[in-house]
Design goal:
It is built from 5 helices and 5 strands; from the N terminus they run E-H-E-H-E-H-E-H-E-H. The protein is α/β, with parallel strands linked by helices.
């Protein structure tokens, strides 16, 4: 499931968000939540396609789902920022499987140590790193002020 439009075809005045997420159910929820909140959302399940979509769509923000090792996440974020001209675009990383206290529904792919490492390594380049389970409201609470601040600069 992939989708994108060129920047010229985006609705004027709506903030654009690129969602990169490998879990179809989560992807649908994120897309619906962001669109219901007034964002122009474009989606991809494929990290290799994310850079191409980002270049064409020129999003105002990035939502990046993570459920594996930290290295590829940093590489993808660096490629999106440098390769698509998104140096100043806010980014919210959604970390699936973070084994944090009280997180019994997490996917078992990211340990608490990896999550802490991910937070520390992305602190300067991301608006927020959220662990699952997360609510769409929590995502919107992090994304809205970040995109408003990016608009002001």
């Amino acid at each position: 499931m992939t989708s994108y439009r060129t920047a010229e075809r985006v609705s004027p005045g709506r903030r654009r968000v690129l969602i990169v997420e490998s879990h179809p159910a989560i992807l649908r929820i994120l897309q619906e939540s962001l669109e219901n909140a007034g964002y122009e959302a474009r989606i991809t399940m494929s990290a290799p396609h994310a850079l191409r979509y980002a270049r064409r769509f020129q999003p105002d923000a990035i939502v990046l789902g993570v459920d594996g090792p930290i290295g590829p996440v940093r590489n993808l974020l660096t490629n999106l920022r440098e390769g698509a001209g998104l140096e100043h675009a806010p980014c919210v990383v959604l970390c699936h499987g973070a084994a944090l206290p009280g997180n019994s529904t997490a996917l078992p792919t990211t340990s608490a140590i990896e999550f802490t490492e991910l937070q520390a390594s992305l602190r300067d380049s991301c608006t927020a790193v959220l662990s699952s389970p997360f609510s769409p409201r929590h995502l919107l609470a992090k994304l809205a002020p970040a995109t408003a601040a990016a608009d002001a600069s």
